[in-house]
Amino acid sequence: MIDLPFIAVIVLIMLGISAAVLKRNMIKIVMGVSISASGINLLLVALGYREGGVAPIFTNAPAAQMVLPTPQALTLTSIVIDLAVTAMMLSFVILMYKHYGSTDSRKRRLSG
Amino acid sequence: MMAFLLQHAPALVIALPLVAAFAMPMLSRLGARAVKAWALLALLATESLVLLLGRDVMSGNPHVYALGATIPSLTTPAGYPIRIIIEVDAMSAFMAMICASISMLVCMYSLQYVRKKGGQDKYYTLLLLMTAGMMGLVCTGDLFSMFVFLELLSVSSGALIAFHARRGESSEAAFKFMVVSSIGALMVLLAAGIFYGQYNMLNLAAIGGMLRFGFLDKVALVLLVAAFAMKCGAVPMHMWVSDAYGEAPAPVSAFLVVASQASLYALFRVCFTLFGVAAATEIMGWALVVLGMLTMFIGVTMAIPQKDIKRLMSYHAVSQTGYMLLGVGVCLAVLGNAAALGSFGITAMQGGLFHVVNHAMYKGLLFLAAGAIIYRTGTRDLNKLGGLAHRMPLTAVFFLIGAFSISGLPPFNGFASKLMIYESVFRFNPLLSVIAMLTSILTLASFMKVFHSAFLGPELPEYRGVREMPPAMWISMGILAVFIMLFGIFPDLVVQYLVGPASQALLDRIGYLGGVL
Amino acid sequence: MKRKTDKSMDDGMSIIVKVAAYVLAVPITILGLYIILHGHLTPGGGFPGGAVIATLTVLFLVAAGKEKAKALKKDMISFAGGVGLVMFAFFGFIGTGTTFFYNILANSGSLFGMRIPFGVNPGYMWTAGVIPPMNMAVGLEVAASLSLIALVMFLYTMEDER
Fold first, then answer.
1. C-beta atoms surrounding B76 within 10 Å
2. Number of domains chain B contains
3. Residues of the domain holding A90
4. A-C C-beta contacts closer than 8 Å
5. Which of A23, A56, B149, C65 is 20 to 30 Å from B358 at the Cα level?
6. Does residue A26 belong to any structural domain of this protein?
7. pLDDT in tens, B104-141
8. Nearest by CB: B68 against C83, C89, C101
């Protein structure tokens, strides 16, 4: 069952991208992108796992092999970036709701 | 002092606009003039640093900088690269010079274009952040930093697109841009994760050194190429370009063109340096060529019926990206065949890279001219404009220079780069060259239509009081026009000193790997 | 204080929520500051600690309502964020004699540079060089930015509810 995190990653990314592509409500599109990003963060953390490892904290560490800390730093960066992107997209949804009156993505004015 | 600056220049080039953007919220309490002066000063300093670094890199070896090491060039203290490594070779320096110059000119133009009362400091902060993101994207040496700087660039561009928030359409354009950009950047992160899982390294040179062409590596390559092609507006993913460039303020549109070209640089870097081994490049080269052909043709045919002046120009920007993809794709496809590479492959790549710098200049000039029209008349609809050449002759001249340049007429610079692409692509496959020339003719037709309906004809009564542009705007456009004509009259000097070393560095995979390892 | 029936978000929520919020603010602040300050010893650091402190602003917005929220000054919060960022860049620049971001204070005997032997230890606070000041700068900046995002979104959506 060592592959279980990776299967979860693929499921999350597929769910996220299908939500971003197929849904009409703009907030659901933003949620789709966010789910997809969470899936990739899970991939990054799961790549660092070593069998029987402990958390990579130096303070009072037990004498065992540690899990890799580099992908945890990458994941932290990715979470911050996704937070900023989600905040921006939600601000645009608020602005569009004020101007167009609905969150339906088919009611748009730019086309062609 | 100069030696100190030159040694630390790779890190300072990214850090300087970033720190200037950080200091902006504190300076905004001093008023709009302090904000504008600070932004212009920071971009001038970045430009001079980039020129200093570029002059040294173009004639010599790549400059390597490890952040936080005991000496800057200590990249492999334990036998394999650790730490974030910035590697500037001639291609990176070429792109960095384009980005720094256009950002300085855009900032100069915005000094009098952006008249909104409360948001001035945010505009200049976002402009500096976009510059920092672009510099990071073209100078960095590892894949995760590319993701971070790509997201920085996307987020600040998205905020600038929606700058005129009074119209609902700009928020919609910015929303589309952000969704497409996030999905593209997430694909880059997925590819970085795949590489990290296989090789336990994130550095481009290190991965390139130990690449085995397994199934997962091919998946990662496809993800990277698709993501960067999505970010530069190649054809199946081009829908966001017209909205984003059309709704942004005019100087921001000119700067977004350079942002798309930075993503194009990332595409080339991945294809040539990471995967540049001769056996696998023919299929990828043909894929880029097909993308380029579709982009060129669909871009120009969608541009012809447009009525909004900035949407029309953004479709032309899509079409010109196709030329760059075509040129470099041809070189990638013949990378394994040494005879073909020597006879026409290198010329194709040089044509593509020359087209990058030409496109940044003439597209910037066209967008800035459109901005001048919108600034003075307040409308963007071609059906309502007319007869502006009587009142705005300088804008008409600049627009004409840009239009002739984009269609590839001598003696402007578009002719030089397009000629190189036509000649070399003809030796590869004649049909591609014919379609490229047809696109050029359609581009000329489209721009003649725009020039006629906006500038020629009798003077309309509602535009009788229109004056010429303010000085900050025509100075920046004048500098661009002068460089366009210089690059057109002396193209062999440009190819010898700028484009030649850049294409050499892109093909020289061993030199890039040797810089770090 | 006057008791008002809360029919809208103008005056915030009821008195129980307000008192609970003001009581809870103390442990939240201490938790946030703990996560920031011990970032080089335990998991956390600048960003999670700053996010915890930003929840104070959200708690305030929910409990106190729109009228009190208009009293928060956006440019002061933005200024605080700018100060945090400039401090971060400053700590990056002081090592530029060697390289950018070089950890010049580690193992040096000065402010954060206590010398400790290599290996597992029970965690000494005044070590690790430039990293704790950078954590504090990032914590200040993240708290300011997230508070500003929450405040601006709240005020814009509550703005013209006619």
1. 16
2. 1
3. 4-50+67-100
4. 28
5. B149
6. yes
7. 999 999 998 887 777 788 899 999 999 999 999 999 98
8. C101
